[in-house]
Amino acid sequence: MAEWNRVAEQQDQVKTATQGEWFAPQLDKSTWSTITIPSFFDQNLFPGMDGVVYFGKDVALPAHWQGKPLKLILGAIDDNDITYVNGTKVGETVGYNQIRKYTVPAAANNGGLLHIAVRVFDGAGDGGIYGGTEQPRLEGPNGEQISLVGDWKCKVGYDLTKLPAKPNAMEGPNRPTVLYNAMVKPFVDLKIKGAIWYQGESNADSKDAPYEQLLPALIQGWRQQWNNEKMPFYFVQLANYKEKKSAPQSSSWARLREAQRQTLKLPYTGMAVIADIGDVVDIHPKNKQDVGRRLGWIATAQLYGKKIPYSGPVLEHWITKGTEMQLSFNPMGKKLVLKDADKLKGSFTIAGADQVFYPAEVKQVGNKLIVSAKEVLSPVAVRYGWADNPDLTLYNDAGIAGSPFRTDDWTKN
């Protein structure tokens, strides 16, 4: 780890260019990129990048603010930050969902201009000063505020993909074997009725083994350990998360949901769909009551034999007819139900052989959906709910949501 840190420091373009004085107020940032805060830098400016990015902003202060302690609220930062004001360190926080509220001492507020410098490390997935429940701002005397929303300067320090693989730390919960040895192995001599599993977020952007291999392997491994090849295993599909997108695009969360849905091929498994009860800013949404209720429906029906609805509609087959695609469903209830008509065109998309998806028009005929778009004259593929934060509109009469799906297997997006 020490060697990896040494190499990372050498690769840090900003640190090396400034001899470590990246927070200096007089640092010339005229050649740095401009980014709008709050936002995720890897969703627009540096697509898909993980690593270190430096941020800077100069703020003119009213005369009566000068020489007084101030509050600096940056909101949530993904993942970790070190923050300086006028060359003085005011805070350092680890955690993507922690609200940053730092005090700027009076001694550091020694002029009419406040220079804010933030070093952000993002280990995986989204990264940046994204605000969360708080808008970036300064708070001065008498509760006065200056908004920090808007243009900041930024520059990449290093890109993790250009560094050697980071070694596994020998402490912490994610080191190899520790979760199984500490939290599963002690219980394999006990009889259990089954297992429920709620996880996957950390695998959505992982470059390790694909989840369509990992989750079935986990299930089969546990069944082997408990010596019960029929052990029920019910899992929770990823919730909706992150900001909504106005146009169809690639989604790592949608691909992870697909891997989870494919795991249903294993016998004695069930999946609770919750992409309609998540939280746009919280990767761990607080509503676990409905999650437990939906898992309970599966167990009640599959394990205890009660005849109740427990799954949303399931796509059975599809055909192309002219400019339309016809999708046939098992409603897993009495009938298919489409909700929120104003969101239908965003929840279903359609593409031709060029693999470019467009929002689709949707018509319901019994348990069939007719999907089309004027931009696609020869349709090839349909996708539903294919986004990090999709609008779910496909339900049955029991009010249970259908899983997001796609009819293609394209790797491009």
How would you describe what is shown here?
The chain has 413 residues and is an alpha+beta fold. It contains 7 helices and 24 strands. It has helices at residues 2-11, 13-17, 178-183, 211-225, 252-262, 289-303, 344-347, and strands at residues 33-37, 51-60, 70-78, 80-85, 88-94, 99-104, 113-122, 128-131, 137-139, 145-147, 150-159, 195-197, 233-236, 269-272, 314-321, 324-330, 336-338, 348-351, 357-359, 361-365, 368-372, 381-384, 394-396, 405-406. A 6-stranded antiparallel β-sheet has the order 1-11-2-7-4-5. Strands 3, 6, 8, 9 and 10 form a 5-stranded antiparallel β-sheet that branches. A 4-stranded antiparallel β-sheet has the order 15-16-21-20, with no helix packed on it. β15 (314-321) and β16 form a beta hairpin. The radius of gyration is 25 Å and the shape is globular. The mean pLDDT is 94.
